[in-house]
Write a structure and sequence with these properties.
The chain is of the alpha+beta class and about 80 residues long. About 20% of the residues lie in helices and about 30% in strands. The chain has a four-stranded mixed sheet, covered by helices on one side. The chain is globular.
Length: about 80
């Protein structure tokens, strides 16, 4: 699974208007580093799901961004 910067440039998504927002993946947190390929964001490797949730919440607050679950073992932090 490769993570790259994500640019959302569309007028309609999931039933609401986004406008011309720029969204960027600023961090990846995972329990399974073997599933991550190099990309444009730092990757944080944690030992279990509990630490995954804690690290996601911490980075979300520090970066003033949003955490999103990609898989049960992988979260991304997205800044808009």
């Amino acid at each position: 699974m490769a993570f790259q910067s994500l640019i959302i440039d569309q007028q309609w998504k999931d039933g609401y208007v986004l406008g011309n927002q720029h969204a960027e993946i600023v961090a990846v947190i995972t329990v399974k580093p073997e599933t991550i390929q190099s990309g444009g964001a730092p990757v944080f490797i944690v030992e279990d799901i509990k630490h995954l949730q804690k690290m996601s919440l911490t980075l979300e607050k520090i970066m003033d961004a949003a955490a999103h679950e990609v898989e049960e073992e992988t979260m991304i932090i997205v800044a808009r």
